[in-house]
Amino acid sequence: LRPALLRRKHENAAAALQRLQLRPANLEKRLAEAGDRLDRLWRLAEQLHPDRPLQRGYARVTDGDGLTLTTRQAAAAHARLQLVFRDGELPVCTDATDIPRAKPQAKTRRKRAKEQTGGQQSLF
């Protein structure tokens, strides 16, 4: 136990105690940082909200319980659906037995001419 060693330990303990003391400036800084982080999270949550695309003209399809349906197969399993638009909801009924098939696209005149000439178009 030498006096220099005891003095150094005392100084280190006093410095540690100073760091532990609550200072208003430190608390205000931490509160401001936490507030900024909360603001960033809120903006992110706003961007990821499921109704955000509705503002751009899209609609959201939900079942009778309000669960969002993301596939055609899931929507076909329900007889009653809700279309959610920016300005309100529209109830719709489906008939899963009468699902229209996609019509094949008509061939254009150029495509028909190309097929008839073996891939080469006529110059005339």
What brief labels describe this structure?
124 residues, alpha+beta, three-stranded antiparallel beta sheet, 3 strands, rod-shaped
What can you tell me about this protein's structure?
The protein is built from 4 helices and 3 strands, in the order H-H-E-H-E-E-H. The protein has 124 residues and is of the alpha+beta class. The protein has a 3-stranded antiparallel β-sheet with strand order 1-2-3, with no helix packed on it. It starts with a helix and ends in an 8-residue tail after the last helix. The model has no long low-confidence stretch (mean pLDDT 81).
Radius of gyration: 34 Å
Strand content: 5-15%
Structural class per helix/strand content?
Answer: alpha+beta
Helix % is 40-55%
Summarize the structure.
The protein is of the alpha+beta class. Helix content is 45%, strand content 12%.
Sequence-ordered SSE layout with sheet pairings:
Layout: H1 3-20, H2 24-48, E1 60-62, H3 72-76, E2 80-85, E3 88-93, H4 109-116
Antiparallel strand pairs: 1-2, 2-3
